[in-house]
Amino acid sequence: MAPSVTIGEMRELVGRPFPGGTFTIERWENALLCDVMACERLPEDLAHPAYLFHAPLAGVGLKYGDIFALCRAESDEAIRAGEYVWDVHAPLRVGRTYRMSGSFTDVVRKEGRRAGLMDIITFRIDVHDQADDALVATVVNSWIFLRSA
Predict the structure, then answer these.
(1) How many angstroms separate the CA atoms of 76 and 65, rounded?
(2) 42-96 per-position pLDDT tens digit
(3) CA-based angle 75:77:81, to the nearest 5?
(4) CA distance 113 to 102
(5) Which H or E run includes 56?
(6) DSSP designation for 147
(7) pLDDT at res. 94
(8) How far apart are CA 145 and CA 76, in angstroms?
(9) Alpha-carbon distance 146 to 91, whole Å?
(10) Which string of DSSP letters, residue by residue, matches 62-104?
(11) Which of 92, 95, 101, 121 has a C-alpha 20 to 30 A away from that of 86?
């Protein structure tokens, strides 16, 4: 039986840009994140670096469901987190607005003994300080989409 989507169809995502958008790190939200992470609040206006899990996707102009649909997820249960790679150029700051831009960069189809057929879809999001357009971080994520064969 053929997969529900071909690798050729999935590779059409490569190079497709995200709409882009912005995300502001609010003081109250940073305080809650630090509480949840069971850590001291960082000095001055520093935001917790774990924002790099959340802010790039929150500000890239698509919701998670939109990305799942673009990647042809077979169900919400057929998605797994892959790699998260952060290249941080400057600390994130509370009260700053960051501009996000990025695109899908790779699609690889693999077959595992236990998980079966899967597509590993990678995307990159650049995080710029909106005030001076400085590149603050580059986030490269891969998500795994399980496919029925």
Answers:
(1) 9
(2) 888 999 999 999 899 999 999 999 999 999 999 989 999 999 999 999 999 999 9
(3) 110
(4) 33
(5) helix 51-58
(6) -
(7) 95
(8) 10
(9) 35
(10) --HHHHHHHTT-S-GGGEEEEEEEEEESS--BTT-EEEEEEEE
(11) 95
The rounded distance, in Å, linking the Cα atoms of 89 and 48 is 15
Query: Which residue is listed with tokens 């790679």?
Result: 85
The sign of the CA dihedral 21, 24, 25, 29 is negative
In the numeric block, which tokens belong to residue 127?
């995080």
- For residue 124, give the H/E element and its range: strand 116-129
- State pTM to two decimals: 0.91
Q: How far apart are CA 61 and CA 81, in angstroms?
A: 20
Domain boundaries, the chain: 7-146
Q: Which pLDDT score is estimated for 2?
A: 56
DSSP H/E element including 34: helix 27-36
